[in-house]
Amino acid sequence: MTTTDLAAGQGVAPRTLPKAGAALDRWRVPLTIAVLAVLPFVLPSQALAVNVLIYGLFTVGFNLLFGYTGLLSFGHAAFFGTGAYLTGMAIALLGFGWFPAMLTGIVGASLLSVVIGALSIRTRGIYFCMVTLALAQLVYYVALQASGWTGGENGLRGFTVVKADLIGGFSVNLLNPLAKYYFIMFFAALALWFVSRVLNSPFGAAIEAVRENETRARACGFDVERTKLLSFVLSGALCGLAGTLSALHLSIVPLDALGVHTSSIVVMMTMLGGAGSFFGPFVGALVFLLIEDVASLWTTHWQLIVGIVFILFVLFLPKGIWGSLIQIVRRRRAS
Amino acid sequence: MDLELILMQLFSGLALGAILVMVALGLTIVFGMLGIVNFAHGALFMVGAYAGLWVAAQTGSFWWALIVAPLAVGVLGMLIERFLIRPLYGRTPDDPLLLTFGLGYVLVEAVRITFGTDGIPFSAPDALQGVVDLGVGYFPIYRLFVMGVVAVILLLLWVALEKTRFGLIVRAGARDPLIMKVLGVDVSRLWLLVFGLGVGLTALGGVLAAPMRNVSPEMGTLVLAEAFVVTVIGGMGSLLGAVVAGLLVGVAVSMTALFAPEMATIVMFGLMALILLVRPQGLFGRPAGA
């Protein structure tokens, strides 16, 4: 049985949504892009908007693995950080242009995710979380020790991209915050379109089948290991792209980009927004960064507030903001 | 390289490993019984170290810290199980894991608020300072003391689990909690105690480690990763595995530090990767699905 037969015949969840829901689903990519496009004018600061973009994309990549495939990784900083570091190193040490440097970052993060993915999917369930965390720590310590290349604890500096040259003599002035925002948004939009296609493809149904019931997916003839690994690598590549964009945005790569904290915030953002939903990641990133932005105004210990909010979500709203909204709407319609 | 130095480093590794054994035991006991991974385990290790620091400052005695701090943090663990984790039983195993992860965040921040963000030095009592001649070389007394305490705890645990009625119930509960309920055992009280025990063990590890490491709010992060490495190598849920793998990792890290200091932390993750390749269930773990 091929993947296509199965996806057509017996989808995992009933995909018939109410009319408005179906429209929302069909137009999810243009809708997200439209919202992102006005973000710099709606949010209190443009810096916040860029962060929503970058961390939202990071969360989209993570959500593909956690929300849709059901694998909870605590080591996704490894891909975000590797994407960022390799981009910076390609520019600073090898003199690459911005685009080849971006490709270096994405390819590097993908290769790393092949290695980490292949090792960690040998384990299941709770083990998986522990192994991904430990392997990401390994990458962190390697970067810390290889300070000749990475700058060690001080982070990587000295690769500012002022102007991104495009084909045909055009160029984007990255010193203009708004131009930079739309420059980054272009790549985020591409990634969103790609993720949407992946989710609609037979492979998208396959990963959800693995999440819902691994044994049954296996019995249906899916190569579960290969499906998981492919999802892991796609997720790693997307997170690598987010890291790459973060490096171009900040012009520095802090060592913390590889640290546990970075792996943690992506988990929190996903849970806040709603795991396994298309809009959830950006909602989660927005809410998390807003809490950080507002709370850090009056206390340096904003992480305490974020942590408590997160615990309350796990206890009372495990589907996250967007996931719970969908649930409420569906219940209303059913009654 | 002379033999004396290697032997010294071997002893250092065993002392380091003894701490890891405490932390990994707590993690693996909780997993074996409750089926959840406590992501706040590293943070509770750190809370244990700070509790020890505080008690020692109040009473002026390291010995009180050694006894009171683990008990107090163990009670904190029981409160966590009762009010935060218990509502999550019956949901996916990811939920308690995510919850404890958020809790770890909160604990680190709470300690930062209470004790400040800087590291605090904590010295061993005078009686345990200095070195002792072991015939093959001089060795810090405090590290020997740590190994001794851990050995005693292991012995007590072994007796409690293998020779008492309580141990019998715990082991049976790990096998099949439903049957235990049918037989009239109050499983939820058992889980409360086991969670408290697991947290108490890691807190004791924290107090013992305090004079050997700098006490800082971030000290739990590395410990959590180390404990994961140890449990993956030893086999999740296996007590013997936690002991063997803890000592193994301690010695491996310490020996690498002798030859290539910059590789010391990296080597244990490499060891874990190797185990995953050749024996994914760990040295003493049951194969998946069994």
What does this protein structure show overall?
The complex is a heterodimer of chains A (335) and B (290). Chain A has 335 residues and is an all-alpha fold. In chain A, 74% of the residues lie in helices and 2% in strands. Chain A is built from 16 helices and two strands. Chain A has a two-stranded antiparallel sheet. In chain A, a hairpin with a 5-residue loop joins β1 and β2. Chain B is mainly α and 290 residues long. Helices cover 73% and strands 2% of the residues of chain B. Chain B is built from eleven helices and two strands, in the order ααααββααααααα. In chain B, α1 packs antiparallel against α8 (187-209) and α2 packs across α9 (219-234). The longest helix of chain B has 32 residues, at 3-34. Chain B is globular and about 60 Å long. The relative contact order of chain B is 0.20. The model of chain B has no long low-confidence stretch (mean pLDDT 89). Classes of the chains: A mainly alpha (335), B mainly alpha (290). Chains A and B meet through α7, α13 and α15 of A and α4, α9 and α11 of B. Chain B: Its main location: membrane.
